[in-house]
Specification:
Elements lengths: L3 H19 L12 E2 L4 E9 L16 E9 L2 E10 L10 H27 L5 E2 L10 H14 L8 E5 L3 H12 L5 H5 L7 E4 L8 E3 L8 E3 L1 E7 L6 E3 L9 E6 L2 E2 L3 E4 L4 E4 L8 E7 L4 E6 L4 E7 L3 E3 L9 E14 L7 E5 L4
Parallel strand pairs: 5-21, 6-7
Antiparallel strand pairs: 1-2, 2-3, 4-20, 6-17, 8-9, 10-16, 11-15, 12-13, 12-16, 14-15, 17-21, 18-20, 19-20
Helix pairs in contact: 1-2
């Protein structure tokens, strides 16, 4: 019987390597591992001091206070998945079919979810710096980044170490803007060199939302952009209804009539009115699902303002001879992780997002 424990040990560095190669947020992981005090708790030392006071030639130095306290942060996200590969599909070796499936699972599902969760957690944190929601163009994107840098400078966020995360959909827009400003030789690094060479990381748009919904595992994808919906009841003659929240046109996710998806409608974002080509039949439900989470245009993050904690449990691998459910290799993956923003360093994050309303 193959040694399943040895296979598990073999897969730990492979999983770690895939994470480091594909995760856009891995560059902000702490240099040292977090101090776990329990299975899902980590301790963080928070220190604060008082400022300067007037020196007295008679009494000497004014007294100052130092506050140092340990804060316990609790990891809230406990995720997992089980994958099976039939014995006959993998009869040659565990490292082929089964290994490939496991790698694809990490690249396509685990890593995007970790990135999306972290970035949404930072974007939704109270107290961070924010721009007014806007759709960026080649005429406005550089000025928007300039304003973000100016605001962080005003808030005295250290220059060294800041990271610029930009929605990859904006890459051609930024390139166009730079070429117009600097000529054909203009590059991202050229325009950002005045920002202490702040590195750019391009984030896939499916990982860049202000809010995230983690699915329980019954869908193909483990997470999605947070949505809301409004339901209307047809009377057989009314074609026009009003969506109370007035989402922008891009925020309409899906429209159904009597459970069937339809595109036979027009929508006016300025009024929130949706007009169906044919009136929903009497008693039939029309449901408009729309995104409440915005797409993020860009974020600037100062890594010391955040804490990314991930705790991989040892993967469990069962051979077909041990697996009691079916004649197949079985892989179980479990992950504790979370992301936090220090409440005294919230200005180390700047958010620029698209509008949803």
């Amino acid at each position: 019987m193959p040694n399943s424990i040895e296979y598990a040990k073999k897969f730990v560095p492979i999983i770690d390597g895939i994470y480091k190669a594909a995760a856009v947020t891995q560059g902000m992981d702490a240099a040292t591992r977090a101090d776990f005090t329990g299975v899902n708790e980590v301790k963080v030392l928070k220190v604060s001091t008082t400022g300067l006071g007037d020196y007295s030639r008679a009494d000497g130095y004014p007294k100052g206070d130092v506050t140092a306290a340990w804060e316990t942060l609790t990891l809230t996200e406990e995720r997992g998945k089980e994958i099976s590969v039939d014995r006959m599909d993998d009869e040659e070796t565990l490292g082929l079919t089964f290994g490939t499936v496991t790698g694809e699972f990490m690249r396509l599902h685990v890593i995007p979810e970790i990135d999306a969760y972290r970035l949404a957690k930072y974007a939704s944190q109270e107290g961070i710096s924010k721009a007014a929601p806007a759709v960026l163009t080649k005429d406005t994107i550089i000025a928007a980044i300039d304003e973000a840098v100016r605001q962080m400078n005003e808030d005295e966020v250290p220059l060294e170490g800041r990271k610029l995360y930009i929605n990859s959909d904006l890459q051609p827009i930024l390139n166009n803007a730079l070429n117009r400003q600097w000529g054909s030789d203009g590059t991202v690094n050229t325009v950002l060199s005045g920002y202490n060479n702040m590195p750019i990381t391009w984030v896939p748009p499916t990982r860049f939302y202000t809010e995230l919904t983690l699915n329980p595992g019954t869908t193909n994808w483990g997470y999605g952009r947070t949505t809301d919906f409004q339901e209307f009841t047809g009377d057989g003659s009314t074609t026009e209804f009003t969506i109370t929240d007035k989402p922008v046109a891009d925020a309409i996710a899906k429209v159904t009539v009597d459970g069937t998806v339809t595109t036979s409608y027009t929508y006016a974002a300025s009024t929130g009115k949706i007009t169906f080509t044919a009136a929903p039949a009497n008693g039939k439900k029309a449901v408009v699902t729309y995104y409440t989470a915005a797409n993020i245009n860009f974020m600037i993050i100062y890594p010391p303002a955040i804490l990314q904690v991930q705790k991989f449990a040892l993967p469990k691998i069962f051979s077909p001879d041990v697996n009691q459910d079916k004649d197949a290799w079985k892989f179980q993956f479990r992950l504790y992780h979370d992301a936090f923003v220090y409440d005294n360093k919230v200005k180390g994050i700047y958010l620029h997002k698209k509008p949803t309303e």
